[in-house]
Design brief:
Radius of gyration: 21 Å
Structural class: alpha/beta
Distance between the termini: 18 Å
Strand content: 5-15%
Shape: globular
Helix content: 40-55%
Strand order of the largest sheet: 3-2-1-4-5-6-7
CATH architecture of the largest domain: 3-Layer(aba) Sandwich
InterPro entries: UDP-glycosyltransferase, UDP_glucos_trans
CATH superfamily of the largest domain: Glycogen Phosphorylase B
GO molecular function: UDP-glycosyltransferase activity
Number of strands: 13
Keywords: Glycosyltransferase, Transferase
CATH topology of the largest domain: Rossmann fold
Pfam families: UDPGT
Protein name: Glycosyltransferase
Amino acid sequence: MTLLVISPDYASHLLPLATLATAWRDAGEQVIVATGPATASIVDEFGYSRVNLQLGRGSNPGVIRAEDQPTGEDDALRGFFDATRSGMIETLRFQAEARSADLLFDPVQNARRVQAVVEQTKPDQILVDHLAFGARLGLDAAGISYADVVLGHPSALPVGTEVYGQPPFWPEAFTPSTAELASLRAVNERVSHEFTRQWNAALAELNPAAPPSRDAFAEHGPRVLFNYPELIHQPERTAALPPHAFLGAALRDDPPDLDVAEWLEQGTLPLVYVSFGSFLSVRTDVLLRVVDALRPLPVRVALATGSSDPAAFADVPQHWFVRSYLPQVTLLRHSALAVTHAGNNSVTEAVATGVPMLALPFSTDQFAGARAIEAAGLGEARAPNTASASELREAIARIQTGLAPALATALAATVNLTPGPARARDFLGASGQAAYLP
């Protein structure tokens, strides 16, 4: 049997998809990944074959910098980073306005490229990143069945009266006004309408007989896989989802890192892992406030600086481990606390390793993810632009001495009863969702 994995050329997207595919690989089946060249090394590390497929203008091999992006995409990234400094409403508004160019780039040609990849590889089953809208458009237009993998918070697939881009849940530290929320919703509704118009125009060109969509952001594959623990998702929202499976987490094994392994062996203090992912690590100012919060505490820190200038962290304590990119899962397995932007990989991997969290969300579904952390008692959330070092330090103390560590350990035990890759393969096998190849 052959599994085809379709992913944008972003490490944060490909890593969980590639991890899910290990269930097929370990069963002796062929795995082919269709993605771009920036993440080719990840495909190689997992031992898969790769077919070149560039779904968007940008790319991210693990740490993203605006200057490494194509013309146009670099300015868009800088605009996004600037928006995060203005606050959550401005950030979400900026992301909404950029959505069509980001998520439905060159839709007809990308759709046809995906169809050509399917024809070339002739897979039995297909996993597709939900945010690869152009890829899903091509599969839908051709009548090809696939499993739709939602890698973000489940609200990335809106249900009921939800509008894509409007967080359905907010952490307690964020208090947007009614007017601000109404203004943001108006923007998201307008963008959703325009995005759906573009989707339908492309769909009509690809397959004139296909019925148009009422809301392209609510479109999904025949079977939906949520890379997320069901136990921290609101039950009433779960009831509104289409046929689906919650996978818990795609918890990968990092490649060996001798420097990290040696550092782990040398220390005995509780470990705090700090990372804002591949994008938000550009917020050096917030990372430095986290450093100031942790500096006087009896902890050792593993700090991923990402796209921040390493020189900004030259005076951190000598027993800390600081590098631009770190093996996240390896370090989480040894951590007592994670300080995170509440990106979905970070949240699900911390849950699966039993690590409580201090969440500092900046954008998109990070707000919903941070609220889920709070609601489950797994930690606290604070506003990254306004929380002082002393406030962060107080929050860390409450998390460490409260119920969060015990609750995180208990939740991890439940999540790990059946690993995410096994859940994905079992669900697709049980549902008989082999790809239909016309």
